[in-house]
Amino acid sequence: MNSLTPILSTITASFLGSFVEVVEAFTIVLAVGVTRSWRPALTGAVLALAVLAALVLIFGPLLALVPITILQFVVGVLLILFGMRWLRKAILRSLGVIALHDEEAAFSKETAALRQQSGDRRADYLAGLASFKAVLLEGVEVVFIVIAVGGAHGLTLYAALGALAAFILVMLIGLLVHRPLATVPENTLKFVVGLMLTSFGIFWTGEGIGADWPGADLALIAIFAIVALASFAIIRSLRGSVGKPTAKAAQ
Amino acid sequence: MNIIRIAISELIGMFIDDGSLAAFSLILVIVVAGAVKLFALPPLIGGLLLLLGCLAILVYSVRRAVKR
User: Fold this and answer.
1) Which end of chain B, C or N, has fewer beta carbons within 10 A?
2) Does residue B26 sit within a domain?
3) Structural domain of residue A92, as residue ranges?
4) What is the pLDDT of residue A251?
5) How many structural domains does chain B have?
6) Mutate which of A73, A79, A88, A133 to disrupt the B interface (most B C-beta within 10 Å)?
7) What pTM was computed for the model?
8) pLDDT of res. A239
9) Could you tell me if residue B1 is inside a domain?
């Protein structure tokens, strides 16, 4: 159980975090493919994946040179920052303070922008660039999630498998339904991922400063439960005071 | 160059959204790590302080955003 806990939580956190990012990238690539043509869409996406692979190959081995406690501390702090940001945003979205992320709207916006550029001689280049940018930027987040979630415990391979599973699933769903994955409950996913990343962050930063958590890796589940309960309590206590949701622009 | 600039700002944006959330989190980590390393605070107490501190910062940040 003790060794299974970090493996399962690593795969789950990586899968859920990557799923959100892959959906966002897929929406843009789909918009480019449908509006312009699949050649620039796929060229941009493949080039971005090549850049990402190069980044992982260059920086991945460097991580092995860093002492494990320093790695746990640095990755833990970054995860606290990353996870708390997601968690805060998910809580504010569920309270109706900021607007939900809408993949359908993102698809329409990208499509409209590409249509405007269709008269431009460089339309194919611009379409390919849009696809490249989307896959690169969302991909960098996926790479970070994989390194952060897997790196501190030497479970990068499991984290990568989680991300790969998310990638394959999004592609399959996307190809089957052939439209943006607007029905994916992104805020719920972001909420769970925020909880997991924050818990990982606290756990590893604690280990980085020398804490021997009671129950070793099982403490991760307890930390997750406490952070989850606190987050639900925040939502519950503030739901009344927010009043009518006035979805401000998504931050 | 533009794409590199966008990538860098996107990378920073991954960690910093609400400035005070990031600043308070970093201050918390520095204070707790300093207390453990310099003042011999038991590391487990430090870990628990991190947990409680993060939750307090989250409550503060969400409440502030709701009020705005």
Assistant:
1) N
2) yes
3) 3-239
4) 39
5) 1
6) A88
7) 0.72
8) 82
9) no
Residues B15, A234: C-beta atoms closer than 8 Å = no
- Residues B26 and B22: their CA atoms lie apart, in Å, by 6
CA A56/CA A51 separation, integer angstroms: 9
| Spatial CA neighbour of A202 closest among B28, B12, B67 | B28
Q: Would residue B53 count as lying in a domain?
A: yes
A8 contacts A151 by C-beta, under 8 angstroms: no
Q: Do A82 and B58 touch (CB under 8 A)?
A: no
CA-to-CA distance for A89 and B65, rounded, in angstroms? 10
Distance between CA atoms of residues B44 and A207, nearest Å: 9
Closest C-alpha to B22, from A81, A57, A243: A81
At B64, the amino acid letter reads R
Residue A144 tokens, joined: 């970070």
Alpha-carbon distance B68 to nearest alpha carbon in chain A (angstroms): 9
Cross-chain Cβ contact A77/B32 below 8 Å? no
Per the structure, the complete domain to which residue B23 belongs is given by: 17-67
Yes or no: say if B32 and B49 are a contact pair by the CB < 8 Å rule.
Answer: yes
A210 conformational bin, left if phi > 0, alpha if psi -120 to 50, beta if neither: left
Residue position matching structure tokens 């987040």: A141
Interchain pair A85, B17: CB under 8 A: yes
A contact residues 87-126, partner B, Cβ 8 Å cutoff: 87-89, 91-92, 95, 97-98
Chain segment B11-56, per-residue pLDDT in tens:
677 667 777 888 999 999 999 999 999 998 999 999 999 999 999 9
| Phi-psi category of residue A178: left, alpha or beta, with phi > 0 → left and psi -120 to 50 → alpha | left
Q: Which single residue is written with the structure tokens 């997991």?
A: A196
Mean pLDDT over the full length of chain A: 80
Interface membership of B16 toward A (CB under 8 Å): yes
